[in-house]
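Tip: read the tokens left to right.
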């Protein structure tokens, strides 16, 4: 049984991935910021597979290191798979109107948080000469759209860091890849629009957006390839979406 550590596991793509991997017999280390939700999830999924939960904010590098280093018991002491999923968007403003707080949040979570978690886990993969890292990027990491500026910048950074990881970890038999979803119906837009539910709901009206489960199944596909196959870079869109700006709405 392989052990997968998932960040941002209590909602959206992370939650669907946790559930899908539990159904497919992966032991799980589920990370998030909400202890209550993590505990509920553990109760649900540990009926199928071993589950450990870690409550921390990926922005807090001391907490990241401390929590991950606390995984001393089998099967959690050997992380075979790292899914860097935690990430979000804050605001959708032109560059001259953006808020520094929003910019800090996106760079700190999407870029620095991903690096902190990876920094805590890569050495054990390197020493064992085995591992699989999947970074959840975005179509925003492939093209820049109006008002996406810093969010797109953070996801372009994820794109570059994924390639950098793959290059540098090549000597150690570690697979590194990215799954880049387009529009997925999660609380993404609610966070981006700071709780403005009406505006968030409009984003997904008039077409069938990707669902978190759709992305979880793609992640499972990447994880379940034979050891010599690495899905290096995969973009997944709903049928109605052709690019970040071309979306067919009814
Ligand atoms: C989410 C996709 O188009 O809202 O990363 O940037 S988009």
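Filled-in amino acids:
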């Amino acid at each position: 049984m392989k052990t997968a550590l998932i960040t941002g596991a209590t909602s959206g793509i992370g939650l669907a991935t946790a559930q899908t991997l539990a159904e497919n017999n992966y032991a799980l280390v589920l990370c998030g910021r909400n202890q209550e939700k993590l505990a509920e999830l553990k109760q649900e999924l540990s009926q199928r597979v071993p589950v450990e939960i870690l409550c921390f904010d990926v922005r807090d590098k001391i907490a990241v290191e401390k929590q991950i280093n606390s995984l001393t018991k089998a099967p959690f002491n050997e992380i075979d798979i790292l899914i860097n999923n935690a990430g979000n968007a804050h605001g959708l403003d032109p560059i001259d109107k953006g808020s520094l707080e929003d910019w800090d949040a996106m760079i700190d979570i999407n870029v620095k948080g991903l690096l902190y978690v990876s920094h805590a886990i890569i050495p054990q993969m390197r020493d064992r000469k085995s591992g699989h890292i999947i970074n959840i990027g975005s179509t925003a990491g492939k093209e820049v759209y109006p008002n996406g500026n810093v969010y797109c910048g953070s996801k372009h950074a994820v794109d570059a860091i994924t390639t950098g990881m793959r290059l540098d970890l090549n000597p150690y038999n570690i697979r590194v890849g990215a799954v880049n979803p387009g529009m997925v119906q999660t609380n993404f837009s609610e966070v981006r629009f700071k709780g403005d539910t009406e505006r968030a709901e409009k984003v997904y009206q008039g077409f069938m957006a990707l669902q978190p489960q759709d992305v979880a199944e793609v992640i499972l596909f990447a994880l379940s390839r034979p050891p010599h196959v690495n899905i290096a870079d995969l973009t997944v869109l709903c049928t109605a979406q052709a690019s970040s700006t071309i979306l067919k709405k009814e």
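DSSP finds eight helices and seven strands in the chain. The chain has one domain: 3-236.
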